Amino acid sequence: MTIDKAYIRGSMAAILSVLQHSSCPHNIAFHFLISATANASLVRATISSSFPYLYFRLYPFDHSSVAPLISTSIRSALDCPLNYARIYLASLLPSCIHRVLYLDSDLILVDDIAELAAIQLGDNSVLAATEYCSANFVSYFTPTFWSNPCLSLTFANRKACYFNTGVMVMDLDRWREGDYTRKIEEWMEIQKRMRIYELGSLPPFLLVFAGNIVPVDHRWNQHGLGGDNFDGLCRDLHPGTVSVLHWSGKGKPWARLDAKTPCLLDALWASYDLLDTSFAFDS
Ligand SMILES: *[C@@H]1O[C@H](CO)[C@@H](O)[C@H](O)[C@H]1NC(C)=O
């Protein structure tokens, strides 16, 4: 997970939810990517004070390499460099880490994370995530992209579907072998020049991996609870069982609770809330 000032409250709630629903919490190792400018000892102290027995490591993420590659999206929160840190996990984490489960900070697990982490990636796949083939895939890219065959042919010969990058099982060895960080960066460089999509770190993931991921049961990422990218209105869960509630979209439960305009499901998030809003740890 990433941890930063804006989302620390979410991260702490997510950690608590993971531990509470785990049958073997002492088997879980957390790896946190933090901004290189954050006060690491304060972040460490904050986590340890709430979770004294948690096994975790912090990795400073230097924004300087990715910042020049980020183009403005439709929601400024998506342009935060730490939002792109998941692209760099394979190089930030030590090479003895072969596989990792990436989690966004705006979610709550209500089932045993071990079950999700055990998902098999088969012989070739690098990623497992929840995939939605009924979503309008075309809408994730601009007409500029679709009208340029040199670009859009990247999706020829694969059944590309939208997937959500907020919950991903990642094979870091395969990622390193395939140099996927570089492949994603190449699309970000193209985006800088010709605007081929409107969102943040998601579309380059789709460009590289859509159609080639292992689909995960939708219950592991009931996303969209934060509403859309503009209004952040209340949204209901999709039909079916729920193992992860994910407040993706503009509306974050801690912000709506503070504003005294919570949605129904925000009360569930509140039951994992450990921090008050007066908290700040940037140096
Ligand atoms: C970082 O946080 C620690 C508390 O854990 C504090 O003592 C220290 O002064 C902080 N450093 C800076 C540069 O703010």
List the defining traits of the structure above.
binds 2-acetamido-2-deoxy-beta-D-glucopyranose; Nucleotide-diphossugar_trans; disordered C terminus; 3-stranded parallel sheet; alpha/beta; 283 residues; Spore Coat Polysaccharide Biosynthesis Protein SpsA, Chain A
How would you briefly describe this protein structure?
This protein has a four-stranded mixed beta sheet with strand order 4-9-6-10. The chain has a three-stranded parallel beta sheet with strand order 1-2-3, with helices on one face. Strands 5-11 form a two-stranded antiparallel ribbon.
Overview of this protein structure:
Keywords: Glycoprotein, Glycosyltransferase, Membrane, Signal-anchor, Transferase, Transmembrane, Transmembrane helix. This is Hexosyltransferase. InterPro entries: Glyco_trans_8, Glycosyltrans_8_dom-fam, Nucleotide-diphossugar_trans. Belongs to the glycosyltransferase 8 family. This protein is an alpha/beta fold and 283 residues long. It has a single domain (2-270), classed as Spore Coat Polysaccharide Biosynthesis Protein SpsA, Chain A (Alpha-Beta Complex), CATH 3.90.550. The chain contains 11 helices and 11 strands. The chain has helices at residues 8-20, 40-50, 89-92, 113-117, 143-146, 149-152, 172-178, 180-194, 202-209, 253-258, 266-270; strands at 2-3, 29-35, 55-61, 99-103, 107-109, 127-129, 131-132, 162-163, 167-171, 214-215, 244-246. The longest helix has 15 residues, at 180-194. The relative contact order is 0.18. The model is unreliable at 278-283 (pLDDT under 50). The site of 2-acetamido-2-deoxy-beta-D-glucopyranose (NAG) has 5 residues, from helix 2.
